[in-house]
Amino acid sequence: MTTAAPLISSTQLSVNVTTRSQEQSLYQSSGAIVAAIVVGVIIIFTVVLLILKAYNRHMRGKRELEPKSSKTAVPPPLGQNSSSVTQHSTVTFIPIHMQSR
């Protein structure tokens, strides 16, 4: 019993090798494109971070150089009653029980 070896022509073999090398180059180029996109995104985030950091330093320096406004209340003159200047209102909530019918 003899088995016949399949005959593969040299043109079929070269087409197969060419197809594999094209696929491999496509995979490599797509990997390179993905890597370039990732590096680009990292660079953009770094630039935005540095811009925000510089802006924060600028605004902090500007805030520290500004004169501080006094937000304390001006005391009333001595001749007036302090209760007439500041009136405190109180609200009392009384619970109401509703009867169900």
UniProtKB/TrEMBL annotation:
GO molecular function: structural constituent of myelin sheath
Transmembrane segment boundaries: 32-52
Polar residues: bias regions: 79-92
Region (Disordered): 61-101
UniProt keyword annotation of Nucleotide-binding present: no
Sorted UniProt keywords: Membrane, Transmembrane, Transmembrane helix
InterPro entries associated with the record: NCMAP
Keyword match Cell wall biogenesis/degradation: no
Protein name from the UniProt record: Non-compact myelin associated protein
The organism of origin for this protein: Pavo cristatus
